[in-house]
Amino acid sequence: MHIAPSILTADFAHMGDELTAIFDAGIRWLHLDVMDGRFVPNISFGPMLIRSLRPIAEQYGVVLDAHLMIADPDRYVEEFAAAGCEYITVHAEACTHLHRTVQHIRALGKKPGVALNPATPLSAIEEVLPDLSLALIMSVNPGFGGQRFIPASIDKIRRLRTMLDERGLNDVVLQIDGGVNKDLIAAVRDAGATCAVTGSAVYAPGRNRAETVAELRQALGE
Ligand SMILES: O=C(CO)[C@H](O)[C@H](O)COP(=O)(O)O
């Protein structure tokens, strides 16, 4: 089970320290929430910030995973590939030609992911599942960190796990994103997720980052 902290709720004035704190605690997967103010009602950051944190991530061998909550993401996938993202995830709801976008990311030598909003059924990705490296289930409505986990997401993870297993797609990362904390992380793992995005559970105001990471590991029985 990968723990993938999202920097959305980190202290942007001290980003270098925020990263080394979690990497020193053993984190090797970083989730980058890119928001455009159109697909979601919030604006976060873009490829420029990712380029600037890339050397620190490379020093520790950390996977950079970009979650593009942006309209018409084809316009920008090349920039995120050049910025050093290994996984590039787009939203099914934001793509007119999802299969083409997935192939575009693959052709750039990157690992394509597709995210689904809470109201979007799994059937929206069924046809592209064999082409994916990652499938992301949103367990909050995208746009903001610190929201409450939607309980129905557990069953959605289970159903996606079954779809992947039935097709022998065991290498596809099943990522869950939104409201995952120490009380929920074992349940999402048990339902079949293989990567948990944790924003405010790691980057909680005033909390020691090594301690928040250790709490999540403990909850997983590691
Ligand atoms: O995609 C996101 C919001 O759109 C964030 O990754 C997600 O919400 C993580 O933050 P938290 O763990 O605080 O919910």
TrEMBL record:
A divalent metal cation binds at residues 31, 33, 67, 177. Gene3D superfamilies: Aldolase class I. One of its GO terms (biological process) is pentose catabolic process. It catalyses: D-ribulose 5-phosphate = D-xylulose 5-phosphate. Substrate binds at residues 6, 67, 143-146, 177-179, 199-200. Pathway: Carbohydrate degradation. This is Ribulose-phosphate 3-epimerase. InterPro entries: Aldolase_TIM, Ribul_P_3_epim, Ribul_P_3_epim-like, RibuloseP-bd_barrel. It comes from the Bacteria. Catalyzes the reversible epimerization of D-ribulose 5-phosphate to D-xylulose 5-phosphate. Belongs to the ribulose-phosphate 3-epimerase family. Keywords: Carbohydrate metabolism, Cobalt, Isomerase, Manganese, Metal-binding, Zinc. The active site is at 33 (proton acceptor), 177 (proton donor). Its EC number is 5.1.3.1. Its cofactor is Zn(2+); Mn(2+); Fe(2+); a divalent metal cation. GO terms for molecular function: D-ribulose-phosphate 3-epimerase activity; metal ion binding. PANTHER family: RIBULOSE-5-PHOSPHATE-3-EPIMERASE. It comes from Oscillochloris trichoides DG-6. It is an enzyme of class 5 (isomerase). GO terms for cellular component: cytoplasm. Binds 1 divalent metal cation per subunit.
